[in-house]
Design goal:
By secondary structure, the chain is an alpha/beta fold. The protein is built from 6 helices and 5 strands. Strand 4, helix 4 and strand 5 form a beta-alpha-beta unit. Helix 4 packs parallel to helix 5. The protein is globular.
Length: about 150
Amino acid sequence: MNQSILIASDHRGLNLKAQLTAWMTAHGYQPRDIGTHSAERCDASDFASQLAGDIRDGKANRGVLICGTGQAMAMTANRYRDVRAALCADVTTARLTRQHNDANVLVLGADIIGAGVAEDCLEAFLTTEFLGDRYAERLEKLKALGGL
């Protein structure tokens, strides 16, 4: 396994980020926390931009973003080329977004779901493979749209 996964949150996602970082470490992943590291108010978009830019630039293959609803993180990250950020609130969505869309960033809303559901979503996201085949055409269409 030994996969490095970027993880970032704003102040509202800080506690959930700590729980998911511990979960990843316990399951053999190498989470790389790129912030925030404080409960002080901050802008989710700043951390989403950093993580998405790192993925776009090939510094990582996968990431996890967490803010209050997940919306600010998802909207920001999806403006970047080669980033397919999926806002998930259940395991089925996390699994299907990997299988059908090859999502490479999981976005969670800390105010929306509990830690147990978030861990289940993370596990599905990290262990589910892209199906390819008929979904590969969709992926190529997404890539052709470009981005930052």
